[in-house]
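Structure (tokenized):
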């Protein structure tokens, strides 16, 4: 049996922020089922802030011991640490701005705070991913939580419209991303960014195939960062979503998507960058 079957303590340290946020989100969902009075539910916001601050400290600690984790599926470096701290900080601001808003809307449910934490978990996985599959998993964790947050005020028709549009267009864009990932795997034999780079350095796949795969993946990333012409969903979603959610969606997921866009195109597609020529 290989000696590296079980993760090491260092690997757990490098993913500790995600572990902390996941456990906090599950705890909040559990307490939501137990607490029935509004005065009891006031604990959800401070608990979320405490979890985010703990994850922030864990991110700083993980940055002090950079490297790969879990069979090189995740990588903690200065780039990943910066964006992980950024999205966690955005989560703190989102929670602070949501407390009064939820009280005003008479929706003090703990699932809101749990969804914010789960969305940040997905964003943290995205920015530290070194694998296209891990990027997709992080993207979906963040997106599914964001879809629900956009329609959190269920009795408001604008929220329902916002969530439905966000879900349909997000799913459509994700299909493009997965199709591009399938093409990359087809002519490189790997979904690891470093292995893809090595394959492109040692072989010469047709530029048309590489360009088509990159374009398909860019559609998925472009939707998440609202890059033209994939920004058409943003006005309707932001108008209908709750105000703190609109602020959160306009910064957090976009920062994470921009990070993985840079990592994928500078790492995996770097060897063929000099072959791109305008038509």
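Design, position by position:
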């Amino acid at each position: 049996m290989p000696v590296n079957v079980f993760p090491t303590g260092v690997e757990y340290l490098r993913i500790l922020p995600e572990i902390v946020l996941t456990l906090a989100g599950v705890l909040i969902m559990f307490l939501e089922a137990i607490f029935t009075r509004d005065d009891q539910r006031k604990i959800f916001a401070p608990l979320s802030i405490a979890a985010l601050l703990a994850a922030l400290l864990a991110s700083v600690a993980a940055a002090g011991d950079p490297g790969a984790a879990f069979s090189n599926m995740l990588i903690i470096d200065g780039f990943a640490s910066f964006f992980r701290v950024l999205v966690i900080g955005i989560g703190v601001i989102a929670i602070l701005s949501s407390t009064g808003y939820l009280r005003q809307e008479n929706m003090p449910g703990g699932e809101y705070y749990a969804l914010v934490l789960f969305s940040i978990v997905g964003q943290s996985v995205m920015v530290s991913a070194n694998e296209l599959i891990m990027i997709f998993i992080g993207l979906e964790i963040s997106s599914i939580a964001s879809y629900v947050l956009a329609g959190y005020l269920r009795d408001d028709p604008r929220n329902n419209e916002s969530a439905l549009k966000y879900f349909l267009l997000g799913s459509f864009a994700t299909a493009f991303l997965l199709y591009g990932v399938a093409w990359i795997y087809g002519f490189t034999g790997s979904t690891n960014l470093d292995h893809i780079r090595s394959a492109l350095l040692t072989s010469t796949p047709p530029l048309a195939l590489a360009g088509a795969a990159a374009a398909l993946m860019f559609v998925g990333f472009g939707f998440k960062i609202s890059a033209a012409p994939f920004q058409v969903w943003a006005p309707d979603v932001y108008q209908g979503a709750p105000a703190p959610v609109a602020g959160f969606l306009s910064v957090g997921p976009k920062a994470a998507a921009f990070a993985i866009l840079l990592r994928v195109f500078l790492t995996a597609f770097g060897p063929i960058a000099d072959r791109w020529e305008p038509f």
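Reviewer-requested clarification: The first strand starts at residue 67 and ends at 69. Residues 157-188 form the longest helix (32 residues).
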